[in-house]
Amino acid sequence: MSKGQPVRNLHKHVVDELGQRIVGGLFAPGASLPREEALAESMVVSRTALREAMKVLGAKGLIETRQKTGSRVRDKQHWNQLDADVLNWRCAAMPTDDFIAQLVEMREIVEPAAAASAARNRDRSQLARINAAYKAMAAAADLDAWVAADFEFHEAVLTATNNELLQSLFHVIATALQTFFQLSARKAKDFKYSLPLHFEVSDAIRLRRPDAAREAMRHMVTDSGSLMQARKTRRVTAA
Amino acid sequence: MSKGQPVRNLHKHVVDELGQRIVGGLFAPGASLPREEALAESMVVSRTALREAMKVLGAKGLIETRQKTGSRVRDKQHWNQLDADVLNWRCAAMPTDDFIAQLVEMREIVEPAAAASAARNRDRSQLARINAAYKAMAAAADLDAWVAADFEFHEAVLTATNNELLQSLFHVIATALQTFFQLSARKAKDFKYSLPLHFEVSDAIRLRRPDAAREAMRHMVTDSGSLMQARKTRRVTAA
DNA sequence: AAAAGTCATTTGTACTACAAATGATCCGTC
DNA sequence: GACGGATCATTTGTAGTACAAATGACTTTT
């Protein structure tokens, strides 16, 4: 959802539209949504399509529906905050500094922990993938190649944890963060700045040293985090 | 979903049924599901109800639907692993030791980080709530009261992080873990065993010492984690 | 044999009709 | 007049039909 293209599925479009309105605050928690028939008419879709969308929104914890009463927006605490769509809607809806800080904090928690876990659990092929990504970073001729290899590096580390939940969490957070800035991107002239840090991480994972891996990754993430902070401020200031 | 009672909503029942089948492996990733009409008939519901369920499963990343081709189960990597339902289905479907270990690892990552964050970000009222929970634990006369206060303590800490994503993540993981064992539960005779550890956590949060809070929480969690491990083994052995 | 067009199958959307639930209302009783 | 219960009206829940749209499979043409 939320990813370009003139949505082919009608109900997905409705999900997206209503999701944005709810997360964006147009429908406040506790507020009642219009009747299905009216809502369907206002969105120019059949009640069938609208209902399919409503069920999806219900599954994401955004709304609660009862007969006779209708649908009401649930309290934020019930939302599936880690759902990719919900996260995207929050990113789209005038993200507050606070929310971005939360995302950054999540990354600062997840990635070092993942590096440590990878150092403990990685197998040979997973290590090879990490090293390959590192070499690709070292060999990157331009910023695009660097960014691609960088992403592959992080993904390889996450895969090496052998923890699907951790992978899923990282994926969701990284995707959301990319809404605001390229992951660890830097100005073109010194885009290889963090290469030594990446080496430290991969080396610690190779040597199966969880603590060293965690620390190296922590340095890396807090470093790029402070940079993101700077960019965010600029962005928000400009907005 | 998955929570007792003869499901009132038909489509929710279908979601649950199909979700369990998919996550449980009856429908393997890559496999095609029967046509909507056939599937609806086999589950004794209308195509309308079935479709509402399919949309929900699609939103959870379990299936992918295209015209003419039908619906197929997506690869595990696309599943919303952090969705409460998906997690419950995994818990229900003969959980492997591996999966439980993943849940425990997540908790070991999240809770110490949360304690540190709470030490940084808590406000006065949030600290008061944590202290109140601690006092309730200290005053607990029986195991039930202890467990309730214990849960409140952890929830209070998570709330004090002021990070909704972190709260959401903890909630999902804690709920899933409770499928297997009471959070930090102990034998009746020494159920207050971990009270000093809880004091350390609350005190570090009071003093705004993130590192101390993280360490104290880490002790607590790894401690109860090893206990869980023991219980899990027993459980799996018994099964 | 390759390309283009046709067909058949399956999902997508719309619409209608009625069932079920439930808040609101009205009525009767005390 | 107040309370309790039956009735009503409204809104979602489910079923079923009909057709549109997409697309893989097949057939025809060159």
Q: Which SSEs are present, and which pair or pack?
A:
Two copies of one chain form a homodimer.
Chain A: H1 10-24, H2 36-42, H3 47-59, E1 63-66, E2 70-73, H4 84-92, H5 97-121, H6 124-139, H7 143-160, H8 164-177, H9 195-206, H10 210-238
Antiparallel strand pairs in A: 1-2
The structure holds a DNA duplex (30 and 30 nucleotides).
Protein name (chains A, B): FadR family transcriptional regulator
Keywords (chains A, B): DNA-binding, Transcription, Transcription regulation
InterPro entries (chains A, B): GntR_C, TF_FadR/GntR_C, Tscrpt_reg_HTH_GntR, WH-like_DNA-bd_sf, WH_DNA-bd_sf
Which labels suit this protein?
Four Helix Bundle (Hemerythrin (Met), subunit A); DNA-binding; disordered C terminus; 3% strand; homodimer; 239 residues; two-stranded antiparallel ribbon; 66% helix; elongated; mainly alpha; Arc Repressor Mutant, subunit A
Descriptive account of the structure:
2 copies of one chain form a homodimer. Chain A has 239 residues and is mainly alpha-helical. Chain A folds into 2 domains: 10-78, Arc Repressor Mutant, subunit A, CATH 1.10.10.10; 95-238, Four Helix Bundle (Hemerythrin (Met), subunit A), CATH 1.20.120. Chain A contains 10 helices and 2 strands, in the order αααββααααααα. A two-stranded antiparallel ribbon of chain A has the order 1-2. In chain A, strand 1 and strand 2 (70-73) form a beta hairpin. In chain A, helix 1 packs across helix 4 and helix 5 (97-121) runs antiparallel to helix 8. The longest helix of chain A is centred in the C-terminal third of the chain and has 29 residues, at 210-238. Chain A is elongated, with a radius of gyration of 21 Å. Chain A starts with 9 loop residues before the first helix and ends with a helix. Chains A and B meet through helix 3, helix 5 and helix 8 of A and helix 3, helix 5 and helix 8 of B. Chains A, B: Residues 8-76 form the HTH gntR-type domain. Chains A, B: This is FadR family transcriptional regulator.
